[in-house]
Amino acid sequence: MSRPAAPRGTRDLFGDEVRLFRRIEERAADCFRLYGYEELRTPVFENVDLFRRAVGDTTDIVEKEMYVFEDRGGRPLALRPEGTAGVVRAYLEHAWDQSAPVKKLFYSGPMFRAERPQAGRYREFRQTGGEFFGNASPEADAETLLLMRDILAAAGLPKGAATFGVNSLGCAECRPAFRDALRAYLEPKKAGLCENCQRRLVVNPLRVLDCKGDGPALADAPVTTDHLCADCRAHHGRVLELLRAAGLPFAPAPRLVRGLDYYTRTVFEVTAPGLGAQDALGAGGRYDGLVKALGGPDTPAVGFAFGVDRVARALEAQNVPVSGPRRVFIAQTGAGTADAAFRLADELRGEGLWEAAPLAVEVGAPGKSLKSQFRAADGWGAAWVLLVGEDELKKQTVILKDLRAGAQREVPLARAAAAVLETIAAEKPS
Ligand code: AMP
Questions:
Q1: DSSP 361-388
Q2: CB–CB of 384/329 below 8 Å?
Q3: How far apart are CA 179 and CA 259, in angstroms?
Q4: What does the alpha-carbon distance between residue 210 and residue 263 come to, in Å, rounded to a whole number?
Q5: Cα 296 to Cα 93: distance, rounded to the nearest angstrom
Q6: Which helix (H) or strand (E) holds 401?
Q7: What is the Å distance from ligand 1's center to 122 Cα?
Q8: Ligand 1, atom 10: closest residue by C-alpha
Q9: Which of 125, 212, 311, 313 gets mutated to test ligand 1 (max ligand atoms within 8 A of its CB)?
Q10: Which residues does 267 contact at the CB level (< 8 Å), separation at least 6?
Q11: At 186, is the secondary structure helix, strand, or coil?
């Protein structure tokens, strides 16, 4: 019989990889809190309508990538393809627009899109992101980009391994003129565009600019920043000025667009060159029109999401080390040793609770041969074995064995836990 396999585009996370993911998510959470964000956990599925309205009917996500299903009551639901829609829904549902003029919320969790899987692109992937409501200033946009910079640094990505692209899409005042200019430029080239873009040209011409296939052929297409109204130009100029002053490594990204009307002014993307086609680590922008589009009051907002899988790939590509717990295996052999081994494990785990460096403690099953216990210790990845033997127990000692060095020494049973901790501390790189 063949062994079961996970569905296409999904995968199990384990070993160093899951440690890496946890580190990214934890360091990101620390950074979010540093910037005044609170955590929000929204459901993994929502009413399908929410995404239709928030993400937009003409986007790839809604048109062809959502996992849509009906529950037993016939209610149309969708697995969330992204995080912003749920956060804005919660923001309105809990009337935070009324109780808190400024609200910053962050999230972390799995998202689902039925895309064609490839390296770095999955059908279930994880995002961690934040949404900042109630501040329309360019300072809020610049702060958001610095928060992204800090998350990558806290996760361990070396300086210079990621670059930021920044653009402005203008607003409801100036974007229609840009859209007309773009359409006028694209119309004569229509026959040369991909099928998708020929359709986009009618429904949403901005999206032609970020088409992976056609984009390069549009090198001399009009750019948004040439069509900004005075207010948008001033806003954009101030964002860039703040980023320059902060020393952020960024570049103008005139092709960077978001195809939805509620996106206003600043949009940005972080890429890590060297990751191949899927090199976007995260993206975001200002979306002053979304809260209103979902039935709330006019509320400025800016937000972003990192793809945790992508950040993990970038860290792996840079060989950023991940340390797992220090593993100690307690083996036992001979009459009366089971009690001592059990107590020793309890004591050591008690110490581990307070240890800054995580400790993992495992005990061999009583009655198993020493050989099979050592095999278990090896398979589990133990660095040390504490051997509780019948003869040693009579002397109230145990043997502490360093599996990698092959060395061993006898330590008093009463000091066994302390001896393990001292050994670990001596090993830690200072
Ligand atoms: P988006 O919500 O499309 O703006 O994506 C934000 C970030 O999520 C991207 O920059 C990627 O890092 C990540 N991402 C989006 N789609 C996928 C996917 N299918 N697999 C892995 N990561 C993804």
A1: EEEPPTTS-HHHHHHHHHHHT-SEEEEE
A2: yes
A3: 11
A4: 15
A5: 10
A6: strand 397-402
A7: 9
A8: 282
A9: 125
A10: 166, 167, 168, 169, 256, 257, 258, 283, 284, 285, 286
A11: helix
Tens place of pLDDT per residue across the chain (430 aa): 899 999 999 999 999 999 999 999 999 999 999 999 999 999 999 999 999 999 888 788 888 899 999 999 999 999 999 999 999 999 999 999 999 989 999 999 999 999 999 999 999 999 999 999 999 999 999 999 999 999 999 999 999 899 999 999 999 999 999 999 999 998 888 888 888 888 888 878 888 887 777 666 687 889 999 999 999 999 999 999 999 999 999 999 988 987 666 889 999 999 998 888 889 999 999 999 999 999 999 999 999 999 999 999 999 999 998 888 899 999 999 999 999 999 999 999 998 887 767 899 999 999 999 999 999 999 999 999 999 999 999 999 999 999 999 999 999 999 999 999 998 888 765 4
What is the layout of strands, in order, in the sheet containing 45-47? 45-47, 76-79, 68-70
Residues, the chain: 430
DSSP conformational letter for 118: B
Which DSSP letter does residue 62 get? I
Residues in the ligand 1 pocket, defined by CB under 6 Å: 82, 113, 115, 121-122, 125, 127, 280-283, 305, 307, 309-310
Instruction: Please tell me the residue having the least CA distance from ligand 1 atom 21.
Output: 121
Amino acid at site 239:
V
Cβ atoms of 54 and 294 closer than 8 Å: yes
Specify the amino acid at residue 383.
A
What is the identity of the amino acid at 300? P
